[in-house]
Amino acid sequence: MSEIISSPSLHDNLNTKNGNFICGVVEGFYGRPWTTEQRKDLFQKMKKWGMDSYVYAPKDDYKHRAYWRELYTVEEAEHLTGLIQAAKDQNIIFYYALSPGLDITYSSQKEVSTLKRKLEQVSQFGCTAFALLFDDIEPEMSEADKEVFQSFAQAQVSVTNEVYQHLGHPKFLFCPTQYCSTRAVPNVTNSEYLNTLGLKLSQDINIMWTGNKVISRILTKENVQEITEALRRPPVIWDNLHANDYDQKRVFLGPYSGRSPDLISKLRGVVTNPNCEYGANFVATHTLAQWSKCSFDGQRDLSINDTVSADIKLETETEDGLSGEDVPATLSPNTYHPKHALRNAIKEWLPEFSKHKAAWGPIVKPQPAVAVVPVPIIPSINTCMSLTAGTTTLTSSGSAQPIVSSTQLQALAEVCSSATSVTDILVNPTPGPVMNSLVSDTKVVTNDSIPNPIAPVPIPVPIDAAKSKSITILEGVVIKPNKTSKSNGHPPTNGDVMQDDQKDIKEDNVMSTDVSTSTESSLSPSEPMDCNSTPNISPAHGNKTAEGSSEDVAMSENSTSSGSMQVEPIDPTQMIVETTSDKDRKEELTYEDLALLCDLFYLPFEHGSQGLQLLQEFQWLKSNAHIVISANQRADKPSPEVQEWFTRADKMNEMTQGVNRLFDHMSCCNNREMLYDLYAYIWDIRCVISLLNSYVKWLANGQFPASMPSYTQGTYTWFSKGWKEAFMSGEQEPWVFRGGLTADLQRLIPVDSGNDLFVYKVPDVPTSRVFTIRPYLPSDKEHVYNVCTKTCKDGLENPQTLVPELKNIYADRIVGPYLTLHPEFCFVVEDDIGVVGYACAAPDYKKFRVKQEIAWIPEICQKYPESLSQNANKSVQECISHFHNFKNEVFVNSSTHPSSMLCSLLPSVLDQSVSKRVVTCLLAALRANGYFGVHVVMKSSDSYTHAFYGKLGFIENTLEGIKGKIVMGRTF
Q1: What is d(CA 669, CA 100) in angstroms, rounded to the nearest whole number?
Q2: SS3 809
Q3: Which residues are catalytic?
Q4: CB 3.0 to 4.6 Å from 46: which of 51, 354, 717, 886, for a disulfide?
């Protein structure tokens, strides 16, 4: 590092110049650890960029936390020794960290000896720097410890000082239990715990600190000064700015930001705890390295920047999506500006994608899985609890009821962060499998036979009885808060909650149409430094239960089907072999691709400029769609307003194509390891942006009433009063705003309670095959008929051929009436080859039947006279009978599900998101016309179609019985 520090472009910061400023990376997140190869690659990059420290502290690695007492085997020792040596070879200080605080008995000499023995073993591997981490544990001592120590802090200080002296005073880091201002009791200045550390902990031990919050938007001089006084030493910042282990929809590719280089002289160091996915951390690490070399802050006052609205900021953006206002034309080498640093990082990141690297195991998201129970939609919050916030929710009577008051947005922070009420519903993090990153160079191995001792800690979901007498859960199911749910002061178990909820659902409502919503989207307590706090084997905490929490409660977004952690097979030689030829194509990633990628996944409290532009364009197009209605009603030339609408619709389409290009180019890159780290996120947001664009194409036809805005405006969206201000303020931890830009885009889709429709199963192997959803055109009829005919037999390919005069009979019965009478509610799905699916609806099925009887059936009866039934197969006979006896058939006449629909895809469409996206478009079109419930009908024997719609959130309606048929429905 000394040769880099001597560069004339670096400032003369005393700590950095003397080699006393720690700058590097802490692998301190929850979920799947990095591999040995990835860590060695990190060391090389850190040396190149002038960084000097790496802290080994992966929360879920086998012997770091859950099994901290166990010594390493010979095989593990070889890998760890190799890692330590690899760090030394790059002049990187390797800090080996242990997290014993889950269940250590501080007063037990046997426990302290065990701790010493473990660290001694690692010192024999060549390690000369250590850390003890006491974050994310309950701040209480066992009865045995209380007899020896006066306070929790004294217990930790005693053990840490003893270990530090035993190891011969090595470089040493300490992470306190109160590691940020919001966790200091009662506050930083008056915290007995922090002041005890400052007075009693050896002065040569550096103490870690995350700032004002777990994830701090800004690190201020005042906060640093305050903690420095309490600790009697400057802190080392454990920076969670880029940590993403609390949200499976977000990865952070924006630059190091919100920290002035003026702070460097007031700190002992900064280590970034970044994204779980190693390949996603190039920008986070590179820009931190740039920051550490600067002495001047090139960004204007952040407090001023936060008051600027997104649309004002957009006016100053340059063609490359960066803000021209923010980035000066020239910057001195000693000046740090985040967007300038991002440019530098992207240029250096781009060649990484051309390197040939293999992928091991399927595409996964390495964040911890979370077990969930049904989550209530609280009337005072509406669907801000979910990924999609619509305008209204439906009661069991089926009428649309507005449930948003004018003061709710102002109360957002209190609603999302308070947990002072009862614990009627609990959400528990599930202990993941035991993982081991020290037995293979290329992958993390799991062993399901080893139990994970970390027990879930109940996290209460607040329900304020004063504000709500009852809770609306999903659609139409009313559950009264159970005042007697607490027993002896303890919250109920998951099993109790599940049984009670299911009982109430059965009693109050026969047909709740979004059961999957409750399991696919729910609250997750996962935080970057706060989950799985208490082990069930803990002698100190074994009998304790969480009474409540003052932590922010996360917005509902847990993708159990798309984001739950999967782990690779134990065989470390198993490499993924892709059969697709995508990666053999020669489309190269460009700087513009990566700039777009970083803007789509920017920072916890800030969206990138191109992400903001997507939000802005779609909102404008949706809000001004009434222009299109009038345009379709006039015969004269389009007005400037109409031209502007279509120009901006074209712009939206261009941006969508840009995301598709990014997706395509990324899918073809040589660095498959990098691709597998990023693919799930890109795939997910591409699906959402494509869906928005499909809806804009539908709006362009103007097939909706002037009252449409009252059905589609949405409540808790980026454009709601106070929403983006609350998001950008940093006053709440970022897990309150679940899902990032992906969720903010989804919330603009006018489908209420549609969480389940936005949970997409990511392919195991990358594919760049793109499916486009667009409104139906008359020229599509033959192709739609072809798909219908192929799939009319229980949704599967029908190999049977019919005589020419009967070839369209199935399609004429199933899809023909929709295409003829309601083409405005028909969508097609197409790929590079052609139409592969469709979805159609009739907004009012009762009226639709009348229209069929008048304008469709007579013509069809002439086309298919009863005489054709002779010698025909049974299916054809049924169709002809249907046409000639149409008037007498029993049909669904439901006030809660008045619309009828059907959807079909060729079996070759393996992308599970396609059906959800096309159905979402269809439901959004129905909602724009004032309809909020839809049904489908199928044969009782049709198990394939029953399962198909079940995955789309439809449930069987036992009240609408038709002999030999199954009726399913959902509200939206």
Answers
A1: 42
A2: helix
A3: 136
A4: 51
